Amino acid sequence: MPVRVAVLGFGVVGQAVVRRIVSVPGPLELTHIFNRRIASKRVDWVPAPVVWTESFDEVLAAEPDIVIEVIGGRTPAGDYLRRAIAAGCHVVTANKQLMAYEGPELLAMAARHDVRVGYEASVAGGIPVLCAIREGLSGDDLLEVSGILNGTSNFVLTRMAEAGLPFDDVTREARERGYAEADPSDDVDGHDARAKLCILVRDALGLDVRPADVHTESIRPIRPIDFTYAADLGCVIKQVARAVRHGDGVLAWVRTALVPATSPLAHVTGGQNIVILRGASGNETVLGGFGAGGGPTAVAVVSDALSIAAGSPLTSPGGRALRPAQVVTTARGAFYLRFIVRDRPGVLAGITSVLASHGVNVDAVLQAPGLPKDALPFVVTLEDTEAESVAAALDQIARLDFHVVPPLALPMVG
Ligand SMILES: NC(=O)c1ccc[n+]([C@@H]2O[C@H](COP(=O)([O-])OP(=O)(O)OC[C@H]3O[C@@H](n4cnc5c(N)ncnc54)[C@H](OP(=O)(O)O)[C@@H]3O)[C@@H](O)[C@H]2O)c1
Question: E strands along 24-163, which residues?
């Protein structure tokens, strides 16, 4: 029996999904394409029997087996998915914001209606990370998930490091080359990675973490000089999403971090993504590939639809026993502090005396030669320290009168 599929949204991902479904022999039979202003969307490569519509009622009235949502945003996409579930349809979505904010409720509703929700494409695009958690790693007790989950930020940081250009110039280039949207805030400010981290934490660790609980920092304050100092320390700078079991709760954040040049995280360049899962028994499993783009994302969407067609329950170990978790945002660690100051005698002594008064030990001081004295960038690295002590010291240091820009603190991970 063919499995009848309706696709909601005929944009970048929707078109790639439809291309896969109509070009690959298999059980999936495309019946409807739904989009607003549908007349402007028609293309001649979609087989004639497929119905083009801007009426969701018409889609539901046809009783599809699977509704694929690739519209994006929480509204009206969430309403369409709830109506599809209530009507007894399985659903597949690439929508990270919807799954991050409303995933547990949608999954609970789907369980009540005895239908399945596929959302592989909502995390790391074409990398089958949720499938790996559900199938290949279900025999382990996963303790940690970390990764580079946003290709736009990774592209911007990679180009800044390569070309020594400031954030604004590289972001403009990223827009021109199709790596960034007109407004890249969601990506560069960490909200996109945060949404994906919440989904990963639920599936991998079985903990219900909501986006608002995850400490999230922007990559905007990073300057080209930071890459120079990071290289001196044997590190690169990356937007890292990380969640680690912490007692009964979880430590979870999205931060710009210094990563050792030898770490798998350091080798992910341009628009690529990586996910590292650490288990109690299996240790580290590293998954990498294209985290976005129509083709890779469509593969994840269509694979979910095929799994549903084959009868897979698509239930992750975490999803079976989800429990609310206390989210911790800071922990012990080493830090990189970058200051840009109007140079004068006593600046370094002022900073180190505040650090000492908070019990924070300095590891090293780095200052490249020949830099301008009216905006002198230098770095202080800290030994393993309680993050709260660092934050309190920095708060006090930021009030000293020699700063040209606010001090920057980056964790050094790995
Ligand atoms: N692009 C990627 O690389 C990627 C990767 C992973 C996940 N995703 C996720 O996939 C989803 C789709 O992304 P996309 O890049 O394909 O977006 P897109 O190119 O903007 O496509 C969205 C489509 O949905 C239509 N649409 C928007 N609002 C609608 C509404 N209220 N009613 C009916 N149709 C509506 C749009 O129509 P108009 O043309 O009229 O606006 C457009 O055709 C999002 O959840 C995104 O986060 C995308």
Answer: 28-34, 51-53, 66-69, 90-93, 117-118, 142-148
* Contact predicate 154/273, CB 8 Å: yes
Cβ of 18 below 6 Å from ligand 1: no
**Residues 351-367 as b or e (16 or more Cβ within 10 Å = b):** beebbeebebebeeebe
Q: What is the pLDDT of residues 29-77, one digit of tens each?
A: 999 999 999 999 999 999 999 999 999 999 999 999 999 999 999 999 9
Instruction: Kindly state the percentage of the chain with pLDDT values over 70.
Output: 99
Q: Is the CB of 72 within 6 Å of ligand 1?
A: yes
For ligand 1, atom 42, name the residue with the nearest CA: 11
DSSP calls for 207-239: EE--GGGSEE--STT--HHHHHHHHHTTEEEEE
CA gap 95, 115 in Å, rounded: 18
Whether 196 is catalytic: yes
pLDDT of residue 220: 98
**Which CATH fold topology does 333-412 show?**
Alpha-Beta Plaits (3.30.70)
At the top level of CATH, the class of 129-291+323-328 is alpha beta
